[in-house]
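Weekly modeling sync, notes
Attendees: AB, CL, MP (scribe)

Item 1: holo prediction request
CL wants a bound-state model with zinc ion before deciding which constructs to order. AB pointed out that an apo prediction alone won't tell us much about the pocket. Agreed to run with the ligand included and paste results into these notes for async review.

Input as submitted:
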Amino acid sequence: MESSAPARVDAAINALQLVEYPHPALLRRTKPVVRLDADLRDAVARMFDIMYEAQGVGLAANQVALPYRLFVVNVAGQRGDGEELVFINPVLSRPRGTAVQEEGCLSLPGVRMDVRRPERVAVEAWSLEGEPIRLDLDGLLARVVQHEFDHLEGRLFTDRLPEAAALEVRRDLESFREVFVGKQSRGELPGTAALLAELDRLEAARCVA
Ligand code: ZN
């Protein structure tokens, strides 16, 4: 990863906001970041603002329609409390144990379900300062990091439910889809082809092909 000179201000980063299922940014795998420019640093700061405002404890870049392999976490969920962590190009390894805990997601507001995940996991990533991060995680931080990592893979926590629970949320997902398509048809959101073209543009600016 290189640090480069400030680029021109990217309008997309100026206008960051949460997107909801089934925005295409949430449904495709993000690309590793190779250019950590001033816009992207600005985006990370805004991601923390958006996360706190929405009362979240973690936020992946593609939840604000940035197709980049990075997420932010603060398990305390409040500015000035806990530790603000930025994980860039994270890799998870050494999953151990199993834990079941209820999860929600800022991309699926109102949906909460029990999710089974490894209890502990190791993560390697880069910080915003370009320093390597190597942590062995357990508890809430392990859970949040795995939830956010799933986002980067284009997965939501609803993809990890057992069959009965998956059926239970299917109607919720359909409602989200109807709302999303409705906004598109009224011109409140761009069409899917335009959304995908914007993701391609953002990838081309800061990722390897
Ligand atoms: Zn989420």
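Recorded for review: Helices lie at 11-14, 24-27, 38-53, 139-152, 163-185, 192-206.
Action items: CL to compare against the apo run; MP to circulate these notes.
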